[in-house]
Amino acid sequence: MVEFSSYVTPMDRQYGKPSVDDTSTNDVGIGVQDIGQSVPMGIAAANVQGVAAKLRAGAGAVEIGFPGAVRGQRQAQTPGMFGKDQRQALRELAEIAEVKFTTHSSYGIMGLAGIDQQGNFSKEQKKLAVDEIKRAVEFAADTAQGGSVVVHTGEFQRPISEEPWAKDPSAPKGYRFMHHGEEPERAIIRVVDSRTGQVMTQVRKNQKVARAVWNRYEEDNKEFWEEHKGEGYTDSRGKTVNPGDYVDYEGNKVDIKDRVPVYDPSTGRFKVKYNTWDDFVKEADERNKIEAEKRSMDLQEFKLKNPDDVVLPEEAFLRATLETNEGHSRGWAGYYAQGFERAKKDLSKLRKALNFYKKLEESTPKEEMWKLRQRAGQEIGILPPEYKLPSEVIQEAITRSERTMEFEHQASVSQQQQAEDSRETQEHVMSARKYALKESYDSYAEAGLHALDQTKGKHLGKPLIITMENIFPESYGAHPDELKSLIENSRKRMTERLVKERGFSEAEARKKAETHLKATLDTGHFNMWRKYWQNDPSKSMEQNDKEFQKWMLNKTEELAKAKMVGNVHLTDNFGYQDDHLSPGEGTTPVKEIVKVLKKHGYEGALTVEPGADASTDLSDFHGLMKTWRLFGSPVYGAHGPVGREAGWTKDSWTNIQYSYFGQARAPYYIFGPYAPSQDWTLWSQVPME
Fold it and tell me: Half-sphere exposure (CA, 13 Å, Cβ side) for 30?
């Protein structure tokens, strides 16, 4: 880039006045060269020449983004559309212009859990998403020679109010964040089959489920409670039964999966009641305590060491439904099995009778056979009676019994199969959260490994970094706590793979994971949490706004202290939608966020994403100039930055943004050959006219 000093020229109005070299830009400590611009390929630039045009306009850094996914198009390009020649041209362009490139992977990839358009989780979709990230990583290696590769998060949609960070006892209604006022009662939570990733059901918190009342050793169960006076006892199988344990109808302790319903003698029916969400929260806790006891752990230790085995309320909800289906199928299986047993016994008797009567008929003379014939026909008398030999009647009965047995065994087996399938399915019921996060950690680890391989294999001077971007609040990964957790667990997964598959030491593997997996902090996406922030009605709007901005800065500091931020997007909005206003044009505390990051040593890219200015202003580049103005970067002319100590007024972007050569009005003097000749003028300088 061209650098100017504090020299002045005769054309400058400050000519002749002393000036100083003003190298400071603002209190944040960044200038023109520190702020870059995003260039979506196919939208803001069509090719290498388009990127070069952005550099000539004054961009000191560029984030090359790809709107397309899988198969590229003219207006939605992908990394695969740029061959070796174009990549070399971009690399040389960056070297000559002394600018830094970063990369944004496909905008169409939202998270790496593998969620498809139907809302199911697919291994094929996961592979496709990871491959798109790998394409961007390879492009960054060939052009930017390292640096950030931005990846959208948004692993799955989840109710905001159900997250632990959304709850705050000091906030209105006990929630700091809510999607809408009734969300805590009406939230929808998805449950999937862990074998396939298919969504099994959507659990609604306000939905009630009719369910059996289970037989326990408790005060309501007077038969056993009074017998043992409410104290623990040893059952007939040698097991200790304590108050609250599940028991069968003989008082024997049974496992939770074999529990039986309470029978009410007064009605002759089994007891059933409606269960609410709170009941399933309690059941989930109960199941977790039972499992923790089996592993000789306390509940907290069990949850910490075995997160995949922890039963969540939504899983308990679906298991309840499946248990009902299982019980229904087992009941019919038993019923049909009884019919089969009866038919089998009847068939045995009929075959013996058939042998007896066949021998009798064979020994009976033909003229006496009529005595053996029995009347058979329609009992109602519509058809004439028909007379048959005993063997014929018995043979027909045998045929009917055989058919009954076939029906009974087919029905019983199918019902038994359904019961077993239901029992097996219960073992694979998994919250969409657990399934998606497990897949996401694996995918980001895979992307991080590819970044490591490309960095090492192509001998890059700086590492390639997968930077996970906080996306929209409605999806997982947008909240700073979620983003932090996503990075931490993906790093753990990458560390495990490096140690297990490549023989790295634990410390070395952890360091590599920390290097190649970080965050992209998007200020505009961050500010969109404002619409879900629960205002304090006792405070003014200004006070609530300040509280929200204070929260933003605190969360920024948490990420900065943890050294997790590897890239920053500078955008603005009014807290509702991702409108991509220029920084300073909305309500986002962009300048303050950058100041916090700089305070903790952030030295990565700062990229403006000027979406709105491309439509509502003269060009997208005006978004970059507005950002320079926000951060107080001085205007450079032939005289360099205007000196302050000499008492001059500092020029700013407001003076030149929409003008020609820095002037918003016609000059009040002309100079040199443009001025009229002074040879024929009066001594008084009065015009001759």
Answer: 28
Residue 380 has pLDDT above 80, yes or no: no
Query: Cα angle at 468 between 463 and 472, to 5 degrees?
Result: 160
- Distance CA(379)–CA(538), nearest Å, equals 87
Please state the rounded mean pLDDT for residues 334-352. Answer: 78
As a whole number of angstroms, the longest Cα–Cα distance in the chain is: 167
Instruction: Look at residue 408 in the predicted model and tell me its pLDDT.
Output: 77
Amino acid at 372: L
Residue 483 contacts by C-beta under 8 Å, 6 or more apart in sequence? Answer: 153, 468, 470, 477, 519, 559, 564
95: number of Cβ within 10 Å:
10
Tell me how far apart the alpha carbons of residues 346 and 354 are, in angstroms, rounded to a whole number. 12
List Cβ neighbours of 613 (8 Å cut-off, separation of 6 or more): 581, 582, 619, 620, 621, 622, 623, 626
Q: 175 by DSSP, 3-state: which?
A: strand
> Region 174-185: what's the mean pLDDT?
93
Of the candidates 126, 113, 109, 38, the residue with the CA atom closest to the CA atom of residue 69: 109
pLDDT tens, position by position, 201-219: 888 999 888 888 999 999 8
Mean pLDDT of all residues in 310-317: 90
Q: Mean pLDDT across the stretch 352-375? A: 74
Instruction: Give the residue among 371, 366, 404 at the shortest CA–CA distance from 390.
Output: 371
Residues 6 or more apart whose Cβ sits within 8 Å of residue 497: 445, 449
From the list 564, 441, 467, 568, the residue with the least C-alpha distance to 155 is 441
- Residue 407, by phi and psi: left (phi above 0), alpha (psi -120 to 50) or beta? alpha
Cβ proximity of 54 and 62 under 8 Å: yes
**For residue 353, is pLDDT > 70?**
yes
Q: Which residues contact 436 (CB under 8 A, 6 or more apart)?
A: 111, 113, 115, 121, 155, 156, 476
Query: Does position 688 have pLDDT exceeding 70, yes or no?
Result: no
Cβ-Cβ contacts under 8 Å for 52 (sequence gap 6 or more): 93
- Give the pair of three-digit tokens for residue 435: 């399934």
The pLDDT tens digits for 32-67 are: 778 999 999 999 999 999 999 988 888 889 999 999
> Which pLDDT score is estimated for 376?
46
Question: How far apart are the C-alpha atoms of 23 and 636, rounded to whole Å?
Answer: 11
Contact 175, 166 (CB under 8 A): yes
Q: What angle do CA 175, 177, 179 make, to 5 degrees?
A: 115
Token reading at 584: 């300073």
The confidence score (pLDDT) of residue 197 equals: 92
Give residues with Cβ within 8 angstroms of 38, minimum separation 6: 44, 62, 63, 65, 104, 569, 607, 608, 609, 610
Q: What does the alpha-carbon distance between residue 553 and residue 545 come to, in Å, rounded to a whole number? A: 12
Three-state secondary structure of 257-325: HHCCECEECCCCEECEEEECHHHHHHHHHHHHHHHHHHCCCCHHHHHHHCHHHCCCHHHHHHHHHHHHH
CA distance between the termini of the chain? 50
Pairing between β-strand 61-65 and β-strand 100-104 as defined by DSSP bridges:
parallel
Burial annotation 400-421 (CB, 10 A radius, 16+ → b, else e) = ebeebbeebbebbeebbebbee
Looking up tokens 């044009």 gives 585
